[in-house]
Design brief:
This protein is mostly helical and 302 residues long. 78% of the residues lie in helices and 0% in strands. Helix 1 packs antiparallel against helix 10, helix 1 crosses helix 12 and helix 3 runs antiparallel to helix 4. The longest helix has 27 residues.
Length: 302
């Protein structure tokens, strides 16, 4: 009886980790807004404060960081540049658009990767791929149109978050081969080293407020988005099929919409909900049709 109960207990713990991880990441945009630095500077502190812990976790897990082929290391560092630009553009967008939009568009990387697969294979979508693309296009059109109705600032914020999703897809593509040489945490540690440098340069170039006067938001952001949320997802992803992972991902826009409404007064009309459902459905379908990939260390995905 004990042997039979163990897999169930493991699944329940994994499900709790999956849900808590997604909820934790969904609160990331809230913390970005709370930070008294600029948005890109908040991204710098988010990654920089977590960086020593990423290297420590990789070492404790026995994952290699040195002695890895030069090509793999360069690919991971290049991926880190993409990830740093992803964080920079996403954090800028968070300040301008609604939180639900920011989380959805920031997680668009899985749909973009699916479309990229069609280009590389030189074939048209088939099966569940067509509904994913049509749902993504319809939902994005609705949400972008609603943002234009609200203000030009909201629309530009959406575009920044979409650009973040595109950059994250580039990050994943660069790491496809390099993952064979690295572990999950060593990839994060090495790539984040390049991300920190990129975020520092961008923050200084934009002349943002850099040093926090209140360290609480950036400390919580670093711990929750880069360590706790990421760690829970790394643990739980191996336990569930892509469909379950994709459905769990929908907790992120739901939580973001709730926080946006309760904290920032971001009301959603039925048309907004329809757009969110369509884009969210596209993300789930994309997860099912694409190979399993590592989680967005924010979204996220925050």
């Amino acid at each position: 009886m004990d042997n039979g109960a163990e897999p169930i207990r493991t699944r329940l713990i994994g499900l709790a980790a999956l849900l808590v991880g997604n909820v934790t990441l969904a609160c990331g945009p809230w913390l970005v807004r709370l930070a008294d630095t600029g948005p890109v500077s908040a991204g710098f502190w988010r990654v920089a404060l977590a960086l020593p812990f990423l290297f420590l976790i990789a070492k404790l897990r026995g994952e290699r960081i040195v002695g890895i082929p030069r090509k793999a290391t360069l690919l991971v560092l290049a991926g880190g540049v993409f990830f740093g630009l992803d964080i920079a553009t996403w954090h800028i967008g968070i300040g301008d658009t609604r939180l639900a939009n920011a989380v959805l568009f920031g997680n668009a990387g899985s749909v973009i990767l699916m479309v990229w697969g069609f280009v590389m294979l030189r074939r048209l979508p088939r099966g569940r791929e067509w509904p994913a693309i049509l749902a993504a296009l319809a939902g994005a059109t609705i949400l972008l149109g609603r943002s234009m109705e609200l203000s030009a600032t909201n629309f530009v914020g959406d575009l920044f978050c979409l650009l973040a999703g595109l950059l994250y897809a580039g990050y994943l593509l660069l790491l496809q081969d390099a993952r064979r040489s690295f572990g999950s945490w060593s990839v994060l540690a090495v790539s984040s080293s390049a991300s920190v440098a990129v975020l520092l340069v961008v923050a200084l170039a934009l002349r943002e407020p850099f040093w926090p006067t209140d360290w609480t938001p950036v400390l919580v952001l670093a711990l929750s988005s880069q360590l706790v949320g990421q760690g829970l997802l790394v643990y739980s992803l191996k336990l569930f099929p892509p469909l379950v992972i994709g459905i769990a991902l929908l907790t992120q826009p739901a939580v973001a919409a709730l926080v946006g409404w309760m904290v920032f007064g971001e009301w959603l009309v039925p048309l907004d909900v329809l757009g969110i459902v369509l884009v969210g459905s596209a993300l789930v379908l994309a997860r099912v049709t694409m190979p399993k990939e590592p989680p967005r260390p924010r979204v996220n995905p925050v």
